[in-house]
Amino acid sequence: MCGALRSMMLAMAAVLAFSAGPATAQEEKAVEFNAGAAVSNISPWMGLSLAGHMQDRVVDNVHDQLHVRSLVLDDGTTRLAFAVVDSCMVPKEIIDAAKKMIEASTGLPASHILVSATHTHTAPCSTPVFQTDPSEDYQRFLTARIVDAVQCAINNLAPARIGFGQGSLPDEVFNRRWRMKPGTIGPDPFGNDDELVKMNPPRASEDLIEPAGPIDPSIPFLAVETADGEPLALLANYSLHYIGGTGGGDASADYFGMFADRIQELLKADRREPAFVGIMTNGTSGDINNINFRVPAEAQQPFEQMRKVANKAAAEVFQAYQDVQFQDWVQLSAAQEQIELGVRKPDEAELARAKEIIAQAEGPEMKTMPEIYARESVLIAEYPDTVPVLLQAFRIGDVLISAIPCEVFVEIGLHLKEQSPLDKSFTIELANGYNGYLPTTEQHSWGGYETWRARSSYLEVEADQKIAETVLNLYGQVTAGMEQGG
After folding, report:
1. How many domains does the chain have?
2. Domain range for residue 142?
3. Cβ pair 149, 38 in contact under 8 A
């Protein structure tokens, strides 16, 4: 490329830094790859409701700080941003508002911003689920802090190098849905006695037959370093719901936050300027947890298990990190599509039954599972017949990342990896909104907690197929006409 053309291209890149459309590979490689990372603190104040439980609980202690962790990548023509929130789930309204503010202040298109929740069950409620409602003050605070994290990461943009690695940790993930001996599951909260699987069955029970699905043990990750080879950020992905095991009113980022601390320690990236940012995103873990149901439970101290898992995951990533081949430049691309999906709503008889159960409850708090799900039935009956579901895909060199706003069953994530046009891919769940559980169509027919109609599970039965088809189409869009390997 002649000097004049190179100078002109660099000037254009400075003006069009946020353009979604790729230029030619030759032109893009003439510009510099930049990255920036930052965190913002979203720890709660005392008395806020904690998400992730059937009954309301409130914060009475902050065990460890909660954060939004952001990573921004820029190839000279396209810029992408991640913001990973220590929250059980974050509603689309908050995320859309934050993206709008980021776009207004930085020019970064909302379509190029991926905001996801980690799914810690010990964070302040930000969207109403079961008998927990959010504080409007915390919702406003959370929105502002998501914006802050991304803007600070943009402020920290500097020349960088990027690479991909993958570890595997199979002994800390277990499918939590089990086939049981006939007659041992019992009725669901709606009075039906046709369940074929049970979520979280009794441990070491003689009634266990086999798990109702697979696991995904992989821990893929993006590693980013400064131009002089110092660790800058690491974004990992593991298909594990959460760990838990805290005190009753403790707020905690769960193992997601502990992983971030431990990988920073292993990489000797403490006290750097700018600060290193470690990030663990949640993969497809809608039916996956950390409990080996074949063996009896062992007594543990609060937070002991989550630290054990965090340390093992970080050690596995650190080992794989040694083989990462960093690149000076990779091409970036993004695509998204919003689809409409149907809502499973109660019929007239089901709604009448639900109202009768509520009328007979002692209240105001619902205590039994039939009462809790009766309340959910009444609330879900007020939902529209269809809801918007935003799906997104990022390409980072030869890595594909999909974003789905659900608690996605692991079979779906494995399917997307198998069908992906590139060998390196993973899915971040609970991203860009919250639309409840996403079981496969087949798993819906087997029943179990994740399929029970509620604000935590309401999409149409065949939503998995429509979502997977859309994600694969988005993969096709971000790979079309792009050079393999960046």
Report:
1. 1
2. 32-177+208-332+417-432
3. yes
